[in-house]
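Bug report

Summary: structure tokens for Fatty acid desaturase differ between web form and batch submission.
Environment: batch mode, default settings.
Steps: 1) Submit the sequence below via batch. 2) Compare with the web form result.

Sequence submitted:
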Amino acid sequence: MATALPTDPAAPDPSDAPPRSTDTEALGRELDRIRAEVLARRGAEDARYIHTVVAVHRRLEVGGRLALAISLLPPAWLAGTAALTTAKILENLELGHNIMHGQWDWMRDPAIHSTTWEWDNPTPAYAWKHTHNHIHHTWTNVVGRDRDLGFTVLRMSEEQPWRPVHLLQPFYTALGAPFFEWLAALYDLEADAVLQRRKPLRAFLRDAVNTVCKGARQAAKDYLLFPLLAGPSAVPCLLGNLTANTARSLWAHTVIFCGHFPDGVRSFTEEETEHETRGQWYLRQALGSANIEGGTALHVLTGNLSHQIEHHLFPDLPSNRYAEIAPRVRDVLTAHGIPYTTGPLLQQYASTWARICRMALPNLHRAAPGRPRGEDPA
């Protein structure tokens, strides 16, 4: 059974050679040491960081809303839409995602605690924490267990069975990207789990009602309340809100896909995770993730998920620490012969789309499955 970090709140490219034999328990001890050092050093610097992000987010949202209230003037529309878009991206990725991982619970501040945060998103926080924190981060890239491996509609591994509908996946992936936040809300309902008798119908209906109510509130806020408050600027205000939400969905879709599906990222079978140790779990996280290279602004706007490898290894560490520990993590993995998949945004994006298109076709041959335990194939 897969081993989750005790503090967690909850397809290989055939051209890639598997990692050489490595001592996974030594790997685990080295990564545990990095994690323990960061936990011991959390303090005022981290608190200043998250409070600064919260303050910037609030100012951007208020400024954007005020500018859109007078958005009959084109400069006001452009400024308001840009500010609101940035605010929504920060709230979704650097705040919502990371707060709900429990990264800031140690501060005991109810305003940024994983048990109290409700994000600006159609998906209720509790539903997302179940599908993301518990299922995805425990079973990362395990075919048949990690629902994020293709989000139940995409084929992203040669280990997944091919069906004729997958021929269309490049088209429905592109069409769905602008509506990613709404599709994610439907995904988090786990309708497939009901059909497979893994989720009671009563729980599904409860979650469906909660999601519809949450989504209705989100839509009413952005597409009814604030446009009405804008009076003569109602139509451009509505269009500004729609643009901000669409841009956020496109950006989140890009960041998430580039962190999970470029070439070099591997998938695994359930059999390979049986009796998985902590070191083997770490190895699977490293092989099942990819980073995006860039500057500070990119890292913050991705919620530091540009350091997806570090995030999957240490989902409960403060996100502002990922850039600091990334060189050490890379050195540890390299010393053990483990690939560290990384590249610029455009490279990772192109690689991801190449995989989407490649996996839309039936297997031409059977690729060797990923080896989460680091066994030497020879």
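Above is the batch result. After comparison, the two runs are identical; trailing whitespace caused the diff. Residues 24-359 form one domain. Residues 201-229 form the longest helix (29 residues).
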